[in-house]
């Protein structure tokens, strides 16, 4: 697989790993989202240890209002974070 295909597969595997813990296997509950952020994004979202910050993130991500984050909403989060990191790196190099 190419690097991009590998990255896509890893996104799917990561989502499925945490979504499978409780409830629906097609979405992340608030608890699953918090655990995923703590384990997979510790340096990017240090505020995830604060429940209020997790609540804000969940509300922002949950576009359809079902109190869960589905795969499309998860991908939007990862893409937005990737863009922010890319912009930051470009500024440091300038």
TrEMBL record:
Record's GO cellular component terms: cytoplasm; extracellular exosome
Gene of this entry: LOC115816173
Protein name: Protein S100-P-like
InterPro entries: EF-hand-dom_pair, EF_hand_dom, S-100_dom, S100/CaBP7/8-like_CS, S100_Ca-bd_sub
Domain EF-hand, residue spans: 49-84
GO biological process: endothelial cell migration
Keywords: Calcium, Metal-binding, Repeat
Pfam families associated with the record: S_100
Organism: Chanos chanos
Entry-linked PROSITE patterns: EF_HAND_2 (PS50222), S100_CABP (PS00303)
């Amino acid at each position: 697989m190419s690097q991009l295909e590998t990255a896509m597969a890893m996104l799917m595997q990561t989502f499925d790993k945490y979504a499978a813990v409780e409830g629906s296997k097609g979405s992340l509950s608030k608890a699953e989202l918090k655990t995923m952020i703590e384990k997979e994004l510790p340096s990017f979202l240090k505020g995830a240890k604060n429940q209020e910050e997790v609540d804000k993130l969940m509300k922002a991500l949950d576009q359809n209002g079902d109190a869960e984050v589905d795969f499309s909403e998860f991908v939007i989060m990862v893409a937005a974070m990737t863009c922010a990191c890319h912009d930051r790196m470009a500024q440091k190099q300038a």
